[in-house]
Write a structure and sequence with these properties.
This protein has 83 residues and is an alpha/beta fold. Helices cover 36% and strands 19% of the residues. The chain contains 3 helices and 3 strands, in the order E-H-E-H-E-H.
Amino acid sequence: MNINVLWIDDDYKTQEDFISFAEQYGIDIHPFESHEEGMVSLEAKPNFYHVTILDAKVKNKKDDTVTDLTGLASIKGSFNRNE
């Protein structure tokens, strides 16, 4: 069984080597550039992901051009609601 990782990082495209490396060990990384996109996927498949990796400074909405801590705070709030 592969491990499914939700990765929210606006800069993940520059780290494709990391994704390829993880795949060699049965780790499937599902990257998203914003909190909004990542949470849509998580809410659609709540039991699919085993692990979440969060970038501290990330876009909050898909169309945002600025990264800041707003996305991280939103994600934290989302996870707290699911406890």
